[in-house]
Amino acid sequence: VQLQASGGGLVQAGGSLRLFCAASGAASGRTFRAYNMGWFRQVPGKERELVATMRWNSGRTTYADSVKDRFTISRDSAKNTVYLQMNNLKLADTAVYYCAADLDGLGFQQGYWGQGTQVTVSS
What we know:
By secondary structure, this protein is mainly beta. Helices cover 0% and strands 50% of the residues.
């Protein structure tokens, strides 16, 4: 399984960005499936922070308090892609964003990670 994160960039505070996480590597003839998908972010010198998760089957979502009502995680099963829509961005949202897949409920640490995409919010 490979995860490719993209969509990061430079945006002014109050603006929006949409991140993409494309999953590939499912067995031939099978679409990608996971137990849980997540977006994390990290800034230098700080621990990685969980931003949002989505259960693949049920679509149930969770969000960090810092992004509630501003960020939305979603998926397109047909495209094997998970999105993170980020609105009303703040300077504190500047970070490298990673997507992760927990395939079998053992947690993200046991799962797969994308390479990260930089989000920079300017004043």
